[in-house]
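Example 3.
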Amino acid sequence: MPQDMPPVGGYGAVQYRRNLPTRGFRPAWYLVGMGLVMTFGFYKYGVGVREHNELAREKMWSRIYLTPLLQAEEDRDQVRRHWADLAREQELLGRQTKAYHSDRFVRPTFAVTPEKPLKD
Amino acid sequence: MASREARFHKQVLIDTTPLPDHIPKVKEIGASSAPLMSASFFIGARCRAYNDDYMQCKTEAHGTGEVDCMREGRKVTRCAASVIDDINKHCLQQFRAHWQCLEDNNQQMWNCRTAERPFNKCVFDNLKLEKVIPGTPPNVVPVHQRRKQIFADNDQSKDLVFPTTKAKTADTKATA
């Protein structure tokens, strides 16, 4: 018994490919484009960081130049209060004591305050 | 900044006892933060030596600097006061415009370039004090002199103009 055989000359081609037009550029170009955009963005970011650094430097030095001035004022005030404390102690107790076994200046933890608020 | 309330502040810690008479009197600077910040670079330019002296004295005193360095501290305060006085004398309008701008702009210097440029110029012309930011890389323009900045107002035509300054200096010269 003869078997089914392909027709003479073979079957026609099976159309599996879609005939759509290819859109846009080749994919590699998109990669290149993204690289360019990113490079530009990072460059601008770097410029901004540099500028921020300079602004921070400006701010720090403005403070550094003021620090001795502010510190001097505070120190004078502390010494004034400290000597006033010592004089008060001398007056009330007749002697001056030291709370610490050291000659260093220690910012007081407690302070004498007037009972009633003063008017100034 | 402080995470807790200040309990010992000036309203509570009242002690009006003055310093003893053998300590020379010095008038405190008496300026608030914005004017000080505005003048800081000029204070630094004129008083750097005094400031360094004082800080070195404090470092070398090892804990007794508060008492031992009062002499240097007075010099620091007097020098800074002299700068503020001179600025007030010669560049009052520009100074006022700049520190009020700082006050209104969160004390961010880049927000006040339009007021700062005439101020710096006036101080340089009259007092010969120049704003220099130490440590700026040598190959870049200092940030306060840049023509183009990302954050600041670049437009130099928006710089504040102070028309009476020249007349004022002319007046003082004429009287002197």
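Residues 134 and 160 of chain B are 27 Å apart (CA to CA). Chain B has two domains: 23-132, 136-176.
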